[in-house]
Write a structure and sequence with these properties.
The complex is a heterodimer of chains A (337) and B (298). By secondary structure, chain A is of the alpha/beta class. Chain A has 2 domains: 249 residues, Aldolase class I (TIM Barrel, Alpha-Beta Barrel); 66 residues, no CATH class. Helix content of chain A is 33%, strand content 23%. In chain A, the strands form 3 sheets. Chain A has an 8-stranded parallel beta barrel with strand order 1-2-3-4-5-6-7-15, surrounded by 6 helices. In chain A, strands 9-10-11 form a 3-stranded antiparallel sheet, with no helix packed on it. Chain A has a two-stranded antiparallel ribbon with strand order 12-13. In chain A, a hairpin with a 2-residue loop joins β9 and β10. In chain A, α1 runs parallel beside α10. The longest helix of chain A has 20 residues. Chain B is α/β, with parallel strands linked by helices. Chain B has one domain: TIM Barrel, CATH 3.20.20.70. Chain B is built from 10 helices and 12 strands. In chain B, strands 1-2-3-4-5-6-7-11 form an 8-stranded parallel beta barrel, surrounded by 4 helices. In chain B, α3 packs across α4 and α9 packs antiparallel against α10. The chains are: A alpha/beta (337), B alpha/beta (298). Chains A and B meet through α4, α5, β8, α7 and β11 of A and α3, α4, α5, α6 and β7 of B.
Chain lengths: 337, 298
């Protein structure tokens, strides 16, 4: 553990304009995916083909920003070649690293491209140092992204027991389930993050105006029902209102966003290597704003951690980006659990 | 094909749990998985109690396997996993890669349903590390299984989760405590009141999920009794049944008779329906949304 290491900022790019926005506004790394089910944001109209990937990587590298290709779904039996090709493409494109979840794919990458940096995706569900060190020992994983389930003390325990760099989520949509261990989406729709690279896929969504209310369904299953004065949100199925024991409420999680900005000095002090911003499905303007704010915060924290406090204008800027949703520290704050 | 009983996923009182295991039709089961896999706070059974139960059950001739917790959050959780991994007496089902690291190269183990084995390359890797059996992820179906079976390493057995509410998701948050407006650290063990989970329905009353502490399950009972012949054809070795608080022996007996060829079709379905605590689903097996039931043709 080296507390003096420079804390890096890892930003999302769903398309070339977002990648440029991240680079221009101070990202240390940008992460992106290819246009298929090899990545966990397999949404229509999103992601990169080889031409845009090449251009994006050149743009980043010319400005000393590193690139990582997310190939973070599980290769499905019978379609293995598609994931192999994604690894081959990563090596050919010259990204600095790939971020993977599947051990079989890690083995392929480690054997064929020993110089390609390997990172462990949050989809790999590694919440403890033994799991992380297994991937290090077998495949040479250099960095691991922690699922959004650990308290800040538990993050510290992990860091103390591994020399693998630890990356944590700082901002964006919040998965309340352990990433890589949630089949709710396939239960309802047939497609899940693990099998298809998407949760609550748009193709299964139906909006049904019913007089002055709006019903939102996922493959016919009612996820929520909004009154006229409520904002109807996207029906991510763990963020709907359901009936449990005669009460109707957000039984699993409110539609809230993670914002760990105020924890920055603690995260830096305990030796977190990088902060990840969620949001490859977001607009270039969103990526630009969130990157700029976090860049400023990290720089200020590095310069003077003991006196760091999140500036009101940063907080206001980030709150604006969450579109009125609640903001939470998630599992970092033990009480949330 | 043989029957196994998966780890009890719910929190039952010590008395209820020991009574359940004492009254099982042991001769019908080839394997019993034991241990708390959902929540480290559930402590009615101490590690020594589980070992004692394991020894008692082993005397009946059944193979006993100790299952490790799925979500490891703290050093305390890790210590509990290590204790199981190093028990030196019983086979271990690894439900997290941390457990795999403790077992790899030292002793054989079962690769549990939460290790995310979706392709033959990953299965081969686990076999090299010592896996002697793997349990298919619940969201995979017969087509994926056929492909995985084609390349299955020698001496690795295949087990399929075939009966019970589906373990669909894990969280750091306890949804049972949340229902009672309690924090997880002060949960008052309210999951004891819900020995088959706390049902969750949509706002128009469609049964959807069941809350079991940190775990989210299907409201429907997954039941692949109609697919046993297909499993046999695919070379499945072990059919896993997951426990429910009442009438489990009736389920075990029905599956046993089905495997023996004594019960099938509508007759089998009628018997199972009389013992199931909820409607059934089987969509995953047929490559469909898990919640669907496709009235499997025997």
């Amino acid at each position: 553990m080296t507390a003096t290491r420079k804390l890096e900022l890892v930003c999302p790019a769903g398309a070339l304009p977002s990648l440029k926005a991240a680079v221009d506004n101070g990202a240390d790394w940008v992460y992106f995916g290819l246009r298929d089910d090899t990545n966990a944001r397999n949404f229509a109209g999103l992601n990169f083909d080889s031409r845009s990937a090449r251009e994006g990587i050149r743009y980043a590298h010319d400005r000393d920003v590193k690139t990582v290709l997310a190939i973070n779904t599980f290769p499905q039996a019978g379609a293995w070649e598609r994931w192999e090709r994604a690894i081959d493409a990563a090596a050919d494109l010259g990204v600095d690293a790939v971020i993977l979840a599947d051990p079989g794919l890690m083995r392929y990458a480690a054997r064929k491209y020993p110089d390609l940096g390997l990172q462990l995706s949050v989809q790999g569900s590694a919440t403890n140092h033994e799991a992380i060190n297994l991937y290090r020992d077998h495949f040479g994983v250099r960095r691991a992204v922690l699922p959004r389930v650990l308290s800040i003390r538990q993050v510290e325990q992990v860091i103390r027991n591994t020399d693998v760099e630890i990356e944590v989520f700082g901002f964006g949509s919040l998965c309340v389930m352990v990433e890589g261990r949630c089949a709710l989406s396939s239960f309802a729709t047939g497609q899940s993050p693990n099998t298809f690279g998407a949760c609550s896929p748009a193709s299964a969504v139906r909006w049904e105006p019913r007089g002055d209310r709006m019903d939102v369904r996922l493959n016919g299953i009612l996820i929520d029902r909004y009154a006229a004065d409520e904002n109807a949100g996207y029906p991510t199925l763990c963020k709907g209102r359901f009936d449990v024991g005669g009460e109707t409420y957000y039984a699993i999680e409110e539609p809230s966003s993670l914002n760990a900005l105020e924890l920055l000095p603690q995260l830096a002090a305990m030796g977190v290597a990088a902060i990840k911003i969620e949001g490859r499905q977001r607009s270039p303007a969103y990526v630009a704003d969130v990157t700029r704010i976090w860049r400023a915060a990290i720089d200020e924290c590095s310069a003077n951690a003991p006196r760091f406090s999140a500036r009101p204008q940063w907080k206001a800027g980030l709150t604006r980006l969450t579109e009125g949703q609640q903001v939470t520290l998630g599992a970092y704050n033990r009480k949330w659990k | 094909m043989k029957l196994s009983l998966g780890p009890v996923l719910y929190y039952w009182t010590r008395e209820a749990l020991l009574g359940f295991y004492a009254n099982l039709p042991h001769s019908r089961l080839a394997t019993i998985y034991l241990g708390e896999v959902v929540c480290g706070r559930r402590n009615a059974m101490r590690p020594a109690d589980w070992l004692g139960l394991a020894r008692d059950l082993a005397k009946t001739g059944v193979q006993v396997v100790l299952s490790t917790q799925v979500l490891i959050e703290s050093d305390l959780d890790l210590r509990a996993v290590r204790q199981i991994a190093e028990n030196g007496e019983f086979l271990v089902e690894a439900n997290d890669m941390g457990a795999v690291r403790m077992l790899a190269g030292r002793t054989r183990f079962v690769a549990g349903p939460h290790l995310n084995v979706y392709n033959p390359t990953t299965l081969a890797w686990l076999a090299e590390l010592g896996a002697c059996r793997w349990v298919m992820p619940v969201e995979l179906g017969r087509d994926a299984l056929a492909l995985l079976q084609r390349d299955r390493p020698a001496a690795v057995q295949t087990e399929v989760f075939a009966y019970g509410r589906l373990p669909l998701a894990f969280s750091a948050r306890c949804f049972t405590a949340r229902h009672y407006n309690l924090s997880k650290d002060d949960c008052q063990y309210r999951c004891l009141e819900h020995p088959d989970g706390l049902p969750l329905a949509t706002r128009e009353g469609q049964p959807f999920l069941a809350l079991n502490g940190l775990q989210t399950q299907s409201a429907q009972v997954y039941d692949l009794s109609g697919a046993l012949a297909q499993m046999r054809e695919l070379g499945v070795d072990v059919v896993r049944l997951s426990a429910q608080s009442a009438q489990m022996n009736g389920i075990i007996e029905a599956y046993h008779r089905a495997l023996e060829g004594e019960l099938s079709g509508p007759e089998l379905e009628a018997v199972l329906a009389s013992h199931r605590p909820a409607d059934y689903c089987d969509g995953y097996w047929y490559g469909k949304p898990g919640i669907e039931h496709l009235a499997a043709s025997p």
